[in-house]
Amino acid sequence: MNIVAIILARGGSKGIPKKNIIDFCGKPLINWSINQAKNSKYISSVWVSSDNNEILEIVKKEKVETIKRPKKISTDKSSSEIGWIHAINEIEKKQKIDLVVGLQTTSPIRETKDLDEAIKKFKKNNADSMFSCSKLDDFFIWKKEKVNYSSLNYDYKNRKRRQDVKKQYLEN
User: Fold this and answer.
1) How far is 31 from 105, CA to CA, in rounded Å?
2) Which of 97, 132, 87, 110 is nearest to 34 (CA)?
3) Do residues 74 and 83 touch, judged by C-beta distance below 8 A?
4) Distance between CA 115 and CA 148 in Å, rounded?
5) Which of 10, 69, 110, 159 is an active site residue?
6) How many CB atoms lie within 10 A of CB 38?
7) Which of 81, 111, 115 is nearest to 101 (CA)?
8) Residue 159 catalytic?
9) Which single residue of 18, 114, 151, 169 could bond 156 by disulfide (Cβ 3.0 to 4.6 Å)?
10) Sequential DSSP letters for the chain
């Protein structure tokens, strides 16, 4: 089974400039995801898709495949999905893909064993997709509307005990 890891790394971050290649605990942030994928028992190849030449040069040192992403799908409003679709189309020009593992550069706090366990579970359950999440305990969300706030995920006038709140999950 040909399992490819695709890591999207856009160059134009406004919030944290060059966030994908800033030093994070001694190496560029993106290298954590690259190394986790490369150490997987199941992942056949690792691909980094970026519109930024500096990012592509840095990741080439890690001996991964690179894809130059067009600027028109690398804007602030471009979705990850459009980046993954572009990458898949480019990879499939060279090889058949059986499974894609999409790793977020900005979520480096995972281990290779997490990837391997997820792939095993995915295959065992014959799933069509999978994502990781964290359970939220006692997490109440509010939004600001002009000067007032309103609760989004519960009725603040009838606040339940923590034990009675339905489980909620945050996508990692």
Assistant:
1) 8
2) 110
3) yes
4) 42
5) 159
6) 16
7) 115
8) yes
9) 151
10) --EEEEEE--S--SSSTTGGGSEETTEEHHHHHHHHHHT-SS--EEEEEES-HHHHHHHHTTT-EEEE--GGGSSTT--HHHHHHHHHHHHTTTS--SEEEEEETT-----HHHHHHHHHHHHHTT-S----EEEESS---EEEETTEEEESSS-GGGPPPGGGSPPEEEE-
- The b-or-e profile of 142-156 (16+ CB within 10 A means b, else e) is eeeeeeeeeeeebee
Contact 99, 3 (CB under 8 A): yes
Token readout for 85 is: 């679709």
What are φ and ψ of residue 169, in 5° steps? -135, 140
Report the length, in residues, of the chain.
172
Q: Which residue has the tokens 């499939």?
A: 92
Q: In this predicted model, what pLDDT tens digit does every residue of 118-149 receive, in sequence order?
A: 999 999 999 999 999 888 877 888 999 999 99
Q: The whole model's pTM is what? A: 0.86
Tell me: the pLDDT tens digits for 72-114? 999 889 999 999 999 999 999 999 999 999 999 998 999 999 9
